[in-house]
């Protein structure tokens, strides 16, 4: 019933917990992990942890901090070492995307970093143009990245809790033995 991504995500969460969430979100933040199932992994981790706040807090923190660390690594690599991550085949960001997000940053400034991190599909892409074409410091970039990532992961947390509660309702409705067989 579950896809291969969901099965892999559950296996990672089962074996490594919040460390797996941190690693996958750090790779996603570094633009390298866009092919990894970060959203699926996070929702699976929330479902596995349950819906209590103390149980999901480490998963939430691992995702937000991981994404922020990954984006900050890209920012520093571009700024200090003149690295062009878009030239790597692992980074699925084309020149048109970079031009578009550069215009977005030029118009809105640092709040655009937070806003882009809250939107699936554009997460992390402002790290390259912000590092190249602005005087924004690394700590200010990291703070904006953290705010946007927290909003994004908060929305994923809501999805994860809804899924977890849905599984609980399905277990009650169908009988725990049938759901356990899934």
TrEMBL record:
Keyword annotations: Cell membrane, Membrane, Transmembrane, Transmembrane helix
Locations listed in the record: Cell membrane
Signal peptide (UniProt feature, chain positions): none
Membrane topology, from the record: Multi-pass membrane protein
Predominant location category: membrane
InterPro entries: DedA_domain
Tagged with keyword Membrane: yes
PANTHER family linked to this entry: ALKALINE PHOSPHATASE LIKE PROTEIN, UNDECAPRENYL PHOSPHATE TRANSPORTER A
Protein name (Swiss-Prot/TrEMBL): VTT domain-containing protein
Organism per entry: Halorubrum yunnanense
């Amino acid at each position: 019933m579950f896809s291969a991504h969901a099965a892999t995500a559950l296996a990672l969460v089962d074996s490594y917990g919040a460390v797996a969430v941190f690693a996958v979100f750090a790779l996603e933040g570094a633009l390298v992990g866009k092919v990894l199932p970060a959203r699926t992994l996070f929702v699976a981790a929330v479902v596995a942890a349950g819906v209590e706040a103390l149980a999901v807090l480490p998963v939430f923190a691992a995702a937000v901090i991981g994404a922020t660390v990954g984006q900050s690594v890209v920012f520093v690599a571009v700024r200090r070492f003149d690295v062009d991550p878009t030239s790597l085949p692992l980074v699925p960001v084309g020149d048109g995307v970079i031009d578009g997000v550069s215009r977005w940053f030029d118009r809105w400034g640092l709040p655009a970093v937070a806003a882009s991190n809250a939107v699936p599909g554009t997460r992390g892409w402002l790290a390259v143009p912000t590092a190249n074409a602005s005087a924004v410091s690394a700590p200010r970039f990291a703070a904006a990245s953290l705010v946007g990532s927290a909003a994004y992961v908060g929305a994923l947390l809501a999805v994860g809790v809804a899924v977890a509660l849905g599984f609980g309702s399905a277990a009650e409705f169908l009988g725990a033995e049938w759901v356990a067989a899934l």
